[in-house]
Amino acid sequence: MTYTLEEFCADAHNAMENDSGSAGRDAIRAHLEKLLVNSDFVHEHLSTQSSGKTLLYHDQEFDFYVMAHGTDAGNRKGKPHDHGASWAVYGQATGMTNMTIWHRVDDGDQPGHAELAEHETFPLKPGHAALFDTGVIHSTAHPEPARWVRVTGTDLDTIERYAYDPGRQVMKRMTP
Ligand SMILES: [Fe+2]
């Protein structure tokens, strides 16, 4: 049986209804892995996503968003960032994402100043999804063209969140 986008959205909704905390988010991650291997879904919703993002679903009750992402560029490297008070699940469909998790090592006392230490790097490969829970700082890199799905706890463009430059030890608000 092929697992469809509609089934995923319904299962994600139910997962939030059962537990809107980490357990529910991890259940969404597990459900997303089933969707990522549906080649019809990948063809229909991701194959033409050569850059940027497209909204696939917004849950009215729990306010989570499901988005199609993609890049056809090689060697695309993102800055470390947090997801504010929200969380994000990243699921790989094609290509791969090199994920790096960073730990904040300063005390946060100095405005605009942030010191990060690289904690862990792992490749996110097709059919796999990873949860970045509230407070996690991560960065993504795409060595080759890739397609992925991102589920976020709310609209990340509207909440306070930060991007980090570990080399210069600065942090900058990403949203107005
Ligand atoms: Fe992210």
CATH architecture: Sandwich
Largest sheet: 5 strands, antiparallel
Proportion of residues in extended strands: 35-45%
Number of domains: 1
**How would you sum up the global shape?**
globular
Helicity, as a percent range: 10-25%
* Strand neighbour order, sheet with most strands: 1-2-9-4-7
Number of strands: 11
Average pLDDT? 97
Order of helices and strands: HHHEEEEEEEEEEE
Low-confidence stretches: none
Bound molecules: fe (ii) ion
* Main CATH class: Mainly Beta
Separation of the first and last Cα atoms: 44 Å
Summed up:
This protein has 176 residues and is an alpha+beta fold. The chain has helices at 5-18, 22-36, 39-46; strands at 53-58, 65-71, 76-77, 88-94, 97-104, 116-124, 129-132, 137-142, 146-152, 162-165, 170-173.
Structure description:
The chain is an alpha+beta fold and 176 residues long. It has one domain: Jelly Rolls, CATH 2.60.120. Helices cover 21% and strands 36% of the residues. It is built from 3 helices and 11 strands; from the N terminus they run αααβββββββββββ. The strands form 3 sheets. Strands 1-2-9-4-7 form a 5-stranded antiparallel beta sheet, covered by helices on one side. Strands 3-8-5-6 form a 4-stranded antiparallel beta sheet, with no helix packed on it. A hairpin with a 4-residue loop joins strand 10 and strand 11. The chain is globular, with a radius of gyration of 16 Å. The termini are far apart. The mean pLDDT is 97. Bound molecules: fe (ii) ion. The site of fe (ii) ion (FE2) has 4 residues, from loops.
